[in-house]
Amino acid sequence: MTKKKLLKLQQEQERQALLQEIETIKRAHAATLSNLENITDPDLIDCYIYELNAVQVRYKFLLRQAKASNITNDLPATLLLPQAEAVK
């Protein structure tokens, strides 16, 4: 395999890994929102608020990575969180 083909293969693998990580974070976001909506204990409410903030920060970081890699146009709409679409 040529060096150029290897580089393209590596870039595609990195792209797929990034898209998969964004999908994982989106699922974590949905789970955390669900937990937050269904909990009544004040201590757990605080816990899920912190968790939600952490997930959103990680998501924004991944979107910045996607933008730096010029793959934001390849992101399916299903991977976008409603409040984060403006970051794209």
Q: How are the SSEs placed, and which strands pair?
A:
Elements: H1 3-38, H2 42-68
Helix pairs in contact: 1-2
- Average pLDDT figure: 85
Number of helices: 2
Provide the structure class. Answer: mainly alpha
Q: Describe the main β-sheet briefly.
A: none
Strand count:
0
Low-confidence stretches: 84-88
Strand percent estimate? under 5%
- Percent helix among the residues? over 70%
Shape summary: elongated
Q: Return Rg in Å.
A: 16 Å
Give the H and E element order: HH
Terminal-residue CA separation: 35 Å
Give structural notes.
The protein is mainly alpha-helical and 88 residues long. The protein has a domain at 46-88. Helix content is 72%, strand content 0%. It has 2 helices and no strands. It has helices at residues 3-38, 42-68. Helix 1 (3-38) runs antiparallel to helix 2. The longest helix has 36 residues, at 3-38. The radius of gyration is 16 Å and the shape is elongated. The model is unreliable at 84-88 (pLDDT under 50).
What keyword list fits this structure?
mainly alpha; 88 residues; 2 helices
Summarize the structure.
This protein has a domain at 46-88. It contains 2 helices and no strands. By secondary structure, it is mainly α.
